[in-house]
Amino acid sequence: MNSMRVVALGVLLSSGLAAAGSKTDYTVDLSTANRYASATMGGARNSSDSTQLLSCQIDATVSGISGTCYAVNAQGVSGECRTTNQYLLEAIKSISDSSLVAFTWNESGVCTQVIVRQGSMHGPKL
Fold first, then answer.
1. How far is Cα 81 from Cα 54, in angstroms, rounded to an integer?
2. pTM of the prediction?
């Protein structure tokens, strides 16, 4: 009887591991005509090619702080924006390896929006 319990417990535990949570990673989606880029950090990192990337950074000096977001899609097309806006800088600061990041820019290359979404479905990069 005890061996049946052990087998039943093993089946329950292994079935729980097999039914993992939702996973949704996105590779780089970029449009220079519409001036936007988006991807999950893990999706860009783990893409099937060695071209895609999405990167945002904060640069601070004694005279101020600025941020830049940069993306390259599978075709090698890139998009970039810069900002000194405090709200957009806060969004950039919140990015983690499990974030979905989207950004838009104007014709001068200035960021107009930075979206950062955190969620269990966006796995960390491998």
1. 12
2. 0.81
DSSP strand pairing (64-72 vs 29-31):
unpaired
The token pair at 18 is 């097999």
H or E stretch covering 112:
strand 111-118
Question: Any bridge partners for residue 105, and if so which?
Answer: 111
Q: Which residues, in sequence order, are CB contacts of 52 under 8 Å at separation 6+?
A: 27, 28, 39, 44, 72, 73, 74
Distance CA 83, CA 89 (A): 7
Give the DSSP letter string of 50-111: S--EEEEEEEEETTEEEEEEEEE-TTS-EEEEEE--HHHHHHHHT--TTEEEEEEE-TTSBE
d(CA 121, CA 81): 27
Measure Cα distances from 5 to 1, 2, 15, 17 in Å.
7, 5, 15, 18
Place of tokens 């491998």: 126
Helix H or strand E encompassing 36: strand 36-40
Q: What is the pLDDT of residues 42-76, one digit of tens each?
A: 999 999 999 999 999 999 999 999 999 999 999 99
